[in-house]
Amino acid sequence: MAHITFYEKPGCAGNARQKALLRAAGHTLDVRDLLGWPWRAESLMDFLAPLPVAQWFNRAAPAIRSGEITPEALDKNTALALLLANPLLIRRPLMAIGTRRMVGFDAGRVHDWVGLGPNAPAADTPLEGCAAANGAHNAHGCAKTH
Per the count of CB atoms within 10 A, which of 81, 89, 109, 110 is most buried? Predict the structure, then answer.
């Protein structure tokens, strides 16, 4: 089993569900606060570089849902500056094992990467975004779990 560094938004119901799946599959997690982490451009790009700019963003972030920010219209440098200034915009979770990185939680990709065990959800099961019971959001995005 793998030991995964897992960057989350504390209290996010979606991240809680993702961590539970990983732990149930036997993985151990070093959980870190995505919003409070001292990101530098280089360390964030270690995760984001392989993806198109539009896939760097958390679609549940209020500024994106409201249309204030349109990720598809941003160039790499502008997008990176926005993410560093407001980590709530970063697509989550960010996961690392050694030098290997993953952005987001696509069940099929995560299963292929580290394995989700015999009770893995179907590859097309949505595991990103707000998992609040009614899609409730607060000013910081996804409603916190209690």
Answer: 110
Q: Which of 12, 13, 131, 132 is catalytic?
A: 12
CATH number of the structural domain spanning residue 58: 3.40.30.10
User: In this predicted structure, what is the pLDDT of residue 125?
Assistant: 67
pLDDT at 48 over 50: yes
Q: Cα–chain-centroid distance for residue 141?
A: 13
**pTM value > 0.90:** no
**103 in helix, strand or coil?**
strand
pLDDT (average), residues 86-101: 97
Q: Is 12 in the active site?
A: yes
Rounded to whole angstroms, the Cα distance separating 115 from 97 reads 13
Give the integer Cα–Cα distance in Å for 22 and 1. Answer: 10
Degrees to nearest 5, angle at CA 92 with 90 and 96: 110
Q: What residue numbers bound the domain in which 95 lies?
A: 3-131
